């Protein structure tokens, strides 16, 4: 059976990534008008025929989060009403993923609400990367292809791997990810025990593992204020670490994050272009996930497995 013709569109949240993905696929980015009325309402018009096509809409729901999400939902609805054969929401970063459970009385599970909205709008499939919680896949009753940024990170980190490296999780929740990195890189494993005092402040309590005289790699899926990373890096320095790098899939850097990174506790922040990143002259290395996403889109369009994209070459 011949695969439906492929078309890729983008909202406004990360158009440069969408254009780079299309370059890897070898096709132009689809033409669509995505703008706002004076009162803030989003308006979308798809300027190409998509009837019977396999449509991919690239839109990480990053800052401005609510506008990015609405643009994505409206684009899905527009493609659905234009008789697209299948609509895949490509979300390199899935916003609201941290609100994935009821950890206090009378709070919502917004990650589930977003899943419901995407399906209600007309999405037939989700392609995303490094969800904050893997269980979010279970919020959907449609297929979810969940990619990992680790192959992109490992290719860059190969130059640093060795017996002197220690991979450290900045909190208990990231131990599984840290263990995977340590196993691939042939490094030792450590952990920071932390206590969060509020949404923007983290008080680091203790470090588990020997980091004296070691090159430390902190790994996490997301950073916004860099509080966790900055505190973990400081305690690594105080414990005698030679260098401290951080590998973070999604860098949603706020003004306070840049202030903390400027303190110099972290030698290099390594992240991806899943969301737009302004380095501001700081030691921030942005790795591209465009090739990874392009391969996944082509494989999904051809009804092929995406499992091989998880394999790490050269390790």
TrEMBL record:
Family: Belongs to the ribose-phosphate pyrophosphokinase family. Class I subfamily.
PROSITE patterns in the record: PRPP_SYNTHASE
UniProtKB keywords: ATP-binding, Cytoplasm, Kinase, Magnesium, Metal-binding, Nucleotide biosynthesis, Nucleotide-binding, Transferase
Classification of source organism: Bacteria, Pseudomonadati, Verrucomicrobiota, Opitutia, Opitutales
Family matches, as SUPFAM superfamilies: PRTase-like
Name of this chain's protein: Ribose-phosphate pyrophosphokinase
Recorded catalytic activity of this chain's protein: D-ribose 5-phosphate + ATP = 5-phospho-alpha-D-ribose 1-diphosphate + AMP + H(+)
Source organism per UniProt: Rariglobus hedericola
Positions that bind Mg(2+): 132, 171
Positions of the Ribose-phosphate pyrophosphokinase N-terminal domain: 6-122
Function as written in the Swiss-Prot or TrEMBL entry: Involved in the biosynthesis of the central metabolite phospho-alpha-D-ribosyl-1-pyrophosphate (PRPP) via the transfer of pyrophosphoryl group from ATP to 1-hydroxyl of ribose-5-phosphate (Rib-5-P).
Pathway assignment: Metabolic intermediate biosynthesis; 5-phospho-alpha-D-ribose 1-diphosphate biosynthesis; 5-phospho-alpha-D-ribose 1-diphosphate from D-ribose 5-phosphate (route I): step 1/1
Gene Ontology terms: cellular component: cytoplasm; ribose phosphate diphosphokinase complex
Positions contributing to ATP binding: 39-41, 98-99
Keyword flag Ribosomal protein: no
Chief site of localization: cytoplasm
Locations listed in the record: Cytoplasm
Keyword Cytoplasm annotated: yes
Entry's transmembrane regions: none
Record-linked InterPro entries: PRib_PP_synth_CS, Pribosyltran_N, PRTase-like, PRTase_dom, Rib-P_diPkinase, Rib-P_diPkinase_bac
